Amino acid sequence: MKELAFIENMLNDLAPFVRDQYANRQHVDVSRKTSPTDLVTAVDIEVQRRTMERLDAAFPGDALMAEELNMTDPPADLNARCWVMDPIDGTGNFVRGLFPMFGISLAFVQGGKVLAGAVSLPVLDLLFVAEKGGGAFRNGARMKVSDIDAVEAARIEIEFSSRALRERTICAVRPLFLNTGNLRAHGSAVAGLCSVANGDMEAYVHAALSPWDYAAGILIIEEAGGVVTRWDGGPIRLFDGKTTLLASNKALHARFLASLTNS
Ligand code: LIP
């Protein structure tokens, strides 16, 4: 599929630039958006600009929904060909030099469905790729979600996100907090979703995630055998805006959902 090839080439070309900027991050311009922890850097902007330029040349007329540069609206025709991008997901980690868990995410959507997507974690030199019906791959090796089916043995990635969502998140995830084997909170949606796809974690939970944070990630998880729904069990609809999200290895999905909805 030519769109998948475009995505892979684009992310492979962007990764060295992002790695280099991360190594020199003390010189990167950082600005606040809606709060002191909602940040955008010159690297986010440049990654998005480079992608827009190449998309225009390769697929003129296609829509783009992306986190930066006021491009967060869905396309006018929801069935149109559309690309969905988060130029740097986990910008806070990038800025503070944490882990280093942050990534570039790009997906191709048509008819409202994600047909191809990839996530690059540049500093870790990892590329996660999926095509609808074609499986999911991590640096070329096929991925499969874990088969752990005991809550006490499960590892969950939980996002606490913005302060505004904290109360809701804490109440909803309380049973998961108390009952699951292990918890992590790395602060990058794309990295969290890919860790479920790769079988490193059994679930990823977020109270209000945006389409550019999850578009590629949900396809990668589904193609690795996992499941992604809203907290009420309903399907994620990409152009509905922010959504609650539970991604899991399938074996534990019903039990995690019950914990979230009964809280
Ligand atoms: C952020 C994610 C983070 C999530 C936030 C936000 P950004 O993306 O990385 O994990 O909790 O809701 O979406 O702003 O760094 O691209």
Topology, element by element:
Blueprint: H1 2-23, E1 30-32, E2 39-41, H2 42-58, E3 63-66, E4 82-89, H3 91-96, E5 103-110, E6 113-121, E7 126-131, E8 135-138, E9 141-142, E10 155-158, H4 166-179, E11 182-184, H5 189-197, E12 203-209, H6 211-223, E13 227-229, E14 243-248, H7 253-261
Parallel strand pairs: 3-4, 10-11, 10-12
Antiparallel strand pairs: 1-2, 4-5, 5-6, 6-7, 7-8, 8-9, 12-14, 13-14
Helix pairs in contact: 1-2, 4-7, 5-6
Bound molecules: L-MYO-inositol-1-phosphate (LIP).
Give structural attributes:
alpha+beta, 34% helix, five-stranded mixed β-sheet, 263 residues, binds L-MYO-inositol-1-phosphate, 7 helices
Give me a quick take on this structure.
34% of the residues lie in helices and 27% in strands. The strands form three sheets. Strands 3-4-5-6-7-8-9 form a seven-stranded mixed sheet, with helices on both faces.
